[in-house]
Every structure is written in structure tokens, then in C-alpha cells.
Amino acid sequence: MIRVDGSGKSNALIQVRGLDKTYRRGGEEIQVLQRLNLDVDKGDFVGFMGPSGSGKTTLLNLLGGLDVPTHGSITVASDEITNMSSNKLTQWRARHVGFIFQMYNLIPVLTAFQNVELPLLLTKLSKSERRKHVETALSVVGLAERMNHYPRQLSGGQEQRVAIARAIVADPTFLLCDEPTGDLDRKSADEIMELIHRLVKEYGKTVLMVTHDPVVAKRADLTLHLEKGLLVESGQLGVTAGGVA
Amino acid sequence: MKFLGLIFANLFRKKLRLVLTIGSFAVALVLFTFLAVVKSAFSRGTEIAGADRLVVVSRIGLTQLMPISHRDKILTIPGVKAVTHNHWFGGVYQDEKNFFPQFVIDPENQRKVMTELVVPDDQWNNFLKDRMGAIAGARTAARFHWKIGDRIPIKTTLYGGGSSEFNLDGIYHSERPGGDESQFWLQWKYFDENAPAPVKSTAGWYVVKLNSPDDAVSVAKAIDEKFANSSFETKSETESAFAAGFAKQFGNIELLILTIGGVVFFTLLLVTGNTMAISVRERVGELAVLKAIGFSGRAVLFFVLAESVVIALVGGILGLTLAYLLIPVIGIALTGLLPPLMLSKSLLTLGVGFALVVGVISGLLPGIGAMRMRVVNALRRV
Ligand SMILES: Nc1ncnc2c1ncn2[C@@H]1O[C@H](COP(=O)(O)OP(=O)(O)OP(=O)(O)O)[C@@H](O)[C@H]1O
Ligand SMILES: [Mg+2]
To answer: Considering the entire predicted model, what is its pTM?
Structure first.
């Protein structure tokens, strides 16, 4: 169950309570997130929508442990990440988060294989074990034959599939996708969404995804809208804006 | 090392830039090594000087002559083992630029004092019997392709001029590595017979062999006291102090070389530091992704440092290899102008150290920047 009123079960995979994020630019304060609540269970597929500048990327960065909130807490699989030191947080990211970005963000000087292998370099796996994992991840995304290609030798859709393979190769607790189809044409976008959908349905992955595209958003179990620093379910804008203080 | 693939992939990102950076290291290292070799050539005199030898010159100056009678008086001082006397013989072989030091020596005592300069006995005996005889250092003999038995014409510019032909009776070698093998020795007897009146029965300087190096200070003092208030006062010092003073005559070479070396160092630092900074800046996005994936700030610093150190080592070793091949060639071209150039193991080590230091420093600043960079800000920029 995905909840935004702070009333989720205490055993939800991801629990966000009273999340505030304020940026300071010059003397001016920008409140991006205000007392935001969210509960996501294992295997959920959540979509986030909202106007540009509403704080979607900010929210994903906080959930992924890339940034720290001004107030509030984020607990993932009973680890409260908002209390962790930055070194701890780095290790936590390696184990629990798979990132998928709009611009794929592959390392151009590494082959598809080497890009996918990167997260595994942080584990104790042997070379042959790493190879097995990389090959598996690449076949899940349907690019096993392209593993020796460099990013520039791949199409945008293929690059994003390599990026997805990189995100899932270490079997993270959840995936964070920031406009994963934002830079792709309709057909490639559909293929990518088909793939992410399969990851959720076949492999039981938990996915949190930001998108501007309503067609893409439809793939999610539930789409939440970010408005005035709060998440609201579609169709009931402003209704659940409350929650536990 | 599982990160090697990543480090090397990054190194070869811009091949031209890699080649140019390695090239600047190589050129700087050739220059650095050359300077270091020249510096060590000038200071070698002091390093290889015998600790158990004193050089006695006239208090007035190096070019002032002293009576030959000083010799016997020095010998009476306790602690003195042997005394030999030398003269400067400013001759010219064929052409002014064929310079090598020519000493008029005292054959009876030369070998007792300059024990490390070795001449085979049969050659030495021929020299003793030959008033027109000469002994050449191995380096000078090789330089002019002289063989024993050759007749060597020397024009003198000091003491009246004229030209004489000397017989090359022997060749000496230095048993000490880096010792001076460029001297050319002539017979004092012949010199004294032909010298003009004011030069007759004189010595340019004395070299005193001591029983023990510990006596150096006291014996030097005793010698100078012995001739104090005479018309030929002396100044005695250890051979190394003398050599150091002699090297100073060329000006403050050490300072000059250190200055040029410092400029080379900082230029290289700026060039490679700038290159590394650019190379890091153009991939902040990638480094941010690495950090997002879970690479620590320290890992990112390590990647940047590893890159600059590899460049430094490859460029450095290339430069040292070039220097190793070039310095003998340059050395030959500069014979007579500079003391022999020697590229020692410790200099090579120093060169590698120099390259490493530049490599680490130039990688450190951008590396620390990458280490501290905030992932979210960097990702926003891509
Ligand atoms: N480092 C920062 N300093 C100051 N303001 C920031 C910073 N990062 C983000 N903001 C501001 O926070 C707000 C939310 O930004 P965010 O990138 O999360 O929006 P978004 O919903 O992802 O927008 P988009 O759809 O354009 O990607 C914006 O007004 C942005 O200008
Ligand atoms: Mg965004």
C-alpha cells in the first residue's frame, strides 16, 4: 500500500515522516518540501508527477540518500537514513539504491559491461561472480550481445537499458528513476517502461519514478502529485494534505 | 586491482592530451636531470676530496707562488705523512677550446699523496726517467685518442710562451668513482729548468697527506702558524673546503641551478595541475554518478590521484631514459667546459621522486575538489 497521510503500517519498506526541505539562495528561503509523508511497501511501483520546480528531483535525492532533509525522517527497511553519517550513507546507497537518470549517465570510456560492473566493484564478489551478475543483468534488459559496446555505439533507448542493468545488478532494495524516458522517443520510452514494469511484476522490485508523461505515469500502481511541498493522490488534489505532524 | 580498468579507461579518455602531458613530464625531467647532473659535477670535488689531505696555498691568493723550501718545513710538522707540490701549467693543446688542467708535479711524492690516482708501475718508471715525460688522466687520453708513446705538443701561455712536445709515458685512473681523470701531469724538474727567474724554485700549491683525518684542523693551523709573519704566509684548508671554494669561483652555480630547477618544477606543476583540473571538471557528472552508486569520496580522490601519478611516472621514466641516453652525448660535447657529467643511481631516484611529487600535488587539488563535490549539485549541472 502506498500512503501519503503518514498512517502507513510501521513495517512499510519506505517510511517518510514530516519531510522538510528548504533551500537558501541569498537571503531568500525556498521551501520545496513541507512536512511530506509517504509510505511505500516492497514491490510497489510509485509514480511522481508535478510541475517543473515542484521538488520531484529533490524528493528522489532525499530518498536515495544523496541529500539530507531540513527536517523529518526517512526510514528504509528499518534503517533511518536521515541519521546516518555521510560515509555510512555512501555505503548504504551502494547496497540499497539503484539510480536511473534521465540522461542515462553512463561512463563514456567504459563498455556496457564495465558500466554495469561498476556497482559490483564495491562488493566482495570475485571476478567470475561479477561477470555472471553483469551478464544476467544485461540479459534481463535484452542487451547481452552488446556488452562490449561503448555508450556512443548504442541508441538512447539501449543506453538507458544499460543504465537500468547497472541499477539492478547489485540487487538493490529499491530503484529511483528520475524521468527515465524524458530523453527518449515514444517507442523507446514504451520499451523502457515495459522493462521497468517487468522488473516490478516479474522480479518484485520496488520502484519510485518521476515522470512528466501521463502515458508513462499510467504504468505505475499509483501516481502521486507533488504540490506545494506535499504529495497528493491523483483525483483528490489537496485532500490528504495532512498527516502526522 | 579491480579498479585498474576504470583508471586506465579514464587515462586514455583524451589521447592527445595524455601524450602532451606525458611529454611535458618527459621534457621537464630531461631538464631536471641535466641540471642535477651539472650541479653534482660541480660539487663532486668536495664530495670526493680526501678527508686526510690539506691544500696549502699562498695567503695572498691562489695564483701567488710560494718558495719550494716550504716543503721541508711542512714535513717537520707532526701529523704530516707526505707533501707534494704542484704548479699550474697553462698550456694549450692544438686549440684553446681543448682545455684540460695541466699540473706540474713532483714525481717523487705525487703517488704518496694522491694515492687514489693510479699509474701502473712500468709506466710510472718510464715517466720518472723522462724529463719530457707526461702522464694523462684516462678521460683526457680518451678524449683526444692518445696512446702511450704519443708525442703531445703543448703551447704554453704562462712562463714565457713557446711550444714543447711531451711524451705520453702513462695514463692514470682514479680508484674513486667520479674522481678527476682529466689532468695532465708534467715533470717539475723540466719546468723548473725552463722557468723564468721569479718562478724558479717555487710551488703553486702544496698538497699535504695526513696521518689521520682527525688532525686536519690542528695541522692546518700549525702550517699557517709556521709561516705566519714570513714573506710567504700560507692558507691551509682541507681538500674539500678548498674544492668548495674553487667551485665558487664559477659563481653561485648551485643557486642558479636551484632557481632554474624551481622554475621547471612550478611550470610543470601548473601545466599538469591545470590539465588534471580540466580533466576532472569535464567529468564531474560522471564522478557524481560514481558517488551516487556508492563510491566514497576517498575512492574518487584515489582515482584522480592514481591518474596523475601514472602520468607522472610514465612521463618521468620516459624523461629519465632520455636523459640517460642524452647526458653522455652532451657530456662529450661539453668536455673541457664542465666537469664530467655522471648520472648516478641516486639522481635517477631523485628524478622519479621529483615526478611523483609533481604528480601527487597536481592530482591532489582537483582530487580533493572531486572528493568534496556534492552529488546533487553535480548531477544538476549535467
Ligand atoms: N541546490 C539548490 N539550491 C537552491 N535551490 C535549489 C537547489 N536545488 C533545487 N532547488 C530548487 O528547488 C526547487 C525544486 O527543484 P527540483 O529539481 O526538485 O524540481 P523538479 O520537480 O525535479 O523539477 P523538474 O521537473 O524541472 O526536474 C526548484 O525551485 C529549484 O530551483
Ligand atoms: Mg527534476
So the answer is: 0.76
Q: Is B72 left (phi over 0), alpha (psi -120 to 50) or beta?
A: alpha
Q: Does B293 contact A118 at a Cβ distance shorter than 8 Å?
A: yes
Residue B264 belongs to what domain range?
Answer: 4-45+251-380
Tabulate helix, strand, coil % of chain B (nearest 5).
55, 20, 25
Band of the pLDDT at B46, cuts 50, 70, 90?
low
Which of B177, B202, B232 is the endpoint of a domain? B232
Q: Are residues B100 and B74 in the same domain?
A: yes
Residues B214 and B272 in one domain: no
B261 inside domain: yes
Interfacial A residues in 16-55 facing B (CB < 8 Å): none
Provide residues with CB under 6 Å of ligand 1: A 23, 25, 30, 32, 50, 52-58; B 377
Picking from B284, B376, B380, B382 by the largest number of A CB atoms within 10 A of its own CB, the best residue to mutate is B376
C-alpha distances out from residue B334 to B45, B97, B98, B99, Å: 18, 10, 10, 11
Domains of chain A: 14-236 (3.40.50.300)
Helical (H) or strand (E) element with B158: none
Question: Is A105 in contact with B3 (Cβ distance < 8 A)?
Answer: no
pLDDT 10s digits, A181-210: 999 999 999 999 999 999 999 999 999 999
Closest partner residue to A107 (CB to CB) among B286, B291, B375 is: B286
Residue B243 lies in a domain: no
Quick check: A237 pLDDT over 70? no
Please tell me what DSSP assigns to residue B340: P
Which ligand 1 atom is at minimum distance from the Cα of A56? 21
